[in-house]
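Q: Make up one entry.
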Amino acid sequence: MSKFAKRMHSMEKSAAVIRNLFGAMNDPEVISFSGGAIAQECLPVEIIHELTQDIMQREGRGVEALSYGPVMGVKDLREVVVSDLVRPKGVKLSVDNAMILSGGLEAMNLMCQVFIDPGDIILVESPTFVHSIEIFDMFQARCIAVETDENGMNMEDLEAKIKKYNPKMMYLIPTFQNPTGITLSLDRRKKAAQLASEYDIVLLEDDPYRDIRYNGVELPPVKAFDTTGHVVMANSFSKIFSPGSRLGYLVANERIINKLADAKSATNSHTSILPQIICAEFFKKGHYQEHHRNLCAVHRIRRDTMLDAIDRYFPEGTRRTQPDGGLFTWAELPKNINTTELLVEATTNPEVKVAYVAGEGFFTEGGGKGRNCMRLSFGAVPPEKIREGMAKLGKLLQTYESRYSFTVSS
């Protein structure tokens, strides 16, 4: 029998988490708080229908949309990235520094192709985005966790880990972090850019949630403080336009962007042209501003409903984060609750049928860390379903806790 590549063994654990996540998202009988999708009501179906009709004309952009395109991406979408999404945040780069990707995850894949050899060290947050761990595992990198608190990654621990492990790359989600929803403070953003420069390490800043803010003060990206080109900023159109379009982007200095373009050319030649043109026209024709206002309004209500439901239904002693934006909150439950074990019952018990993502998979350090935690996504679930699902999940948690206490006392 043919042998699989060693990388497939390296990624088995993280891949299993992702399989379960997507499985729950697509089961109509399950109320799923697992995936990081936006509300269906916020998908601009009617606008995209009209734009597509205009685009798909031979005298319009139809021929361009159905043809091969540039590796770096359609020029006017790259111009949108720079003028509408990057430069207003304090990142002063040109169109030549921007590349359109096939979804936000391609940034991690390309960065690993360009920088990572088997055994290289990547410093990540504790906890961090499990899908990124899957990609890093696939490239046989070794992920080392850096401590976090309510203000994001701890910079003292980061510098200590840099000195100890001599990493090839650092990976950071600074705004409404996945999975916790916390935001890296301003002083730590400056320090992260400084450390990347001082120790000559590339820093991948993954920031796909930053534009879905409900309250609080907007902070500049880490890239805005990068004076030496060590920071690569990646983002996605999945949260602010359409996940099905599979569009993302990154910005980097000339030396790095050229290598990333070579890797992309060898991977998939270029991102699909039709969704790029549709997205570019969506922004150029002025649809984004109203769409963005509605996006934030809808998800603000869902966040508030989720936080209220945790406080109302979850066991005493539960702690949760208070995200100012994004799609996730993080719940830390009493120590005797094992969320990995509980997930099987939560998704299969006909009286519950509720999904979440168990906390253990977000911790690269292992050792059972995060066993009593869960990530809850409120984006794709209407408020009434959030209340229903959280009530069922809360009842199951109370039952589980009582069952555990009875077993111990017996």
